[in-house]
Amino acid sequence: MEIPFARWYPAISARHSRRTFDPHKPVPSEILSSLQKVCDEFRPFPGARAIVITKNAEQIYKFVFGSYGTIQGAGLAGLALAFIGDANNRHMPEEIGYTGEGVLLEATSLGLSTCWMTGTFRPGVIKELVKIKGDERVFAASPVGFTSESKSLLEKVMSGQARSKQRKPLSSMVHGLPENEWLPWTKSAVEAARLAPSAMNRQPWQFTVEAKSITISTDKSKVDKFSSTRLDCGIAMLNLEVAALNQGVKGRWELQEAPAVARFIFP
Fold first, then answer.
1. What would the pLDDT profile of 181-237 be if each residue is shown by its tens digit?
2. What is the CATH number of the domain that holds 30?
3. Exposed site from 18, 52, 83, 169, fewest CB < 10 Å?
4. In the β-sheet with 79-86, what is the strand arrangement from edge to edge?
5. How many helices (H) and strands (E) does the chain have?
6. Same domain, yes or no, for 38 and 104?
């Protein structure tokens, strides 16, 4: 499917990780159908897929007191998303991040709340709930449902631990051409990538802006500490492309070898 950038671009800034869900407000069938449709049709990489889990979702989430990934209320009236891919594909983490972010932006556009989870969930439970091929693994998951406008005390504490609203300045993560030589749309695209969620809000990416491309690379200081670094960069990839499309720029991705992740090439 073509990226619905008109819906997804405003969702980039609107989406915030939420961990406390309303157990008494089920997701209507028409919204569920729309979310399922995007999971079925948004398959930019053959080996990466998103699955909607509608039953027993509450079993997926680990409860660890003080854990940043603690989830409350999800699964009882909400849903879960599982992001599954080929375990033998070395580029699968970034492909999962790119694919999953599209699904989560769609969920946001539908009025739902989500939360990327790469560690504090039970992959074994997901394998029992959905069909997993022998060469596949569950890379990430997300609760899906409705939340109140204000965050719960738990969410405020968790967000504070992760400094979720703090963003590094562009000057610390962008290299290559000086900003006065960027094309008019470049800054909005890199800004959208900078807004991508990442585990513990570590923002593990670097951007190299060139005349005909933007390359996303991993921050070498974070690669060894966190296993989801390239997945986080895949999330940033999708945000960057959505913002470019919103400015009328269509490009293509070339996946790269570490420490680079992918290069966005445009006319």
1. 999 999 999 999 999 999 888 999 999 999 999 999 998 655 544 468 999 999 999
2. 3.40.109.10
3. 169
4. 48-53, 79-86, 136-145, 113-114
5. 8, 9
6. yes
